[in-house]
Amino acid sequence: MAKSKKKREPASGDVATNRRARQKFEPIEKMEAGIVLQGSEVKSLRNGKAQMGDAYAVVERNEVWLRNLHIPPYEPASRENHEPERPRKLLLHRAEIERLVGKTAEKGLTLIPTRIYFKGSRAKVELALARGKEGRDRRREIAERDVRREVEREFKSRMR
Fold it and tell me: Of the residues 3, 26, 48, 123, which has the fewest C-beta atoms closer than 10 A?
């Protein structure tokens, strides 16, 4: 039986989620950061339009920047619109930034945004300090998930 090709909606309250990050990276630690946005970007986010498939965060000159986050232009703001993939500054405390500098200096660790959401009237980004998964890790994860599914299926059939 073929799976339906319907688009998954983000969880309630979420504007966008980065599902690819869960597939390709193993999150070690998560944190919340504010994001500096222009007015048209906030309006576009409130409409639920953002794509963060290739987004990543970088620490440059003691500031954290979010790159490759696509927020499409807000249609009614014709002249005052923003550039869709401009770098956006993330707001973190100095101690958090210094800790991230030390952690990302370790081999294989990177900063990945996992979701964007609104907390009150403020837009927030959930960042994950993550390590990239290797191909064999992904295959092992898929095999374990298949085994779990089979066990649950068998359990349900026995319960009937």
Answer: 3
CA–CA gap between residue 79 and residue 116 (Å, rounded)? 26
Nearest to 115 by CA among 48, 28, 58, 62: 48
SS3 158: helix
How far apart (Å, rounded) are the C-alpha atoms in residues 62 and 67?
16
CA angle, residues 73, 123, 115, in degrees to nearest 5? 90
pLDDT above 70 covers a percentage of the chain that reads: 90
* Residues paired with 130 in a beta bridge: 27, 110
Residue 120 sits at the vertex; the CA angle it makes with 115 and 126, to the nearest 5 degrees, is 20
Taking the whole predicted model, whether its pTM rises above 0.85 is answered as: no
Task: Indicate the residue type of 123.
Answer: A
Q: Are 116 and 136 in contact (CB under 8 A)?
A: no
Chain centre distance of CA 83:
20
CATH H-level superfamily of 14-132? Small protein B (2.40.280.10)
> Does position 105 have pLDDT exceeding 90, yes or no?
no
Q: Where are the beta strands (DSSP E) in the chain?
A: 14-17, 25-35, 56-60, 63-67, 88-91, 109-119, 122-132
CB 21 within 8 A of CB 112: yes
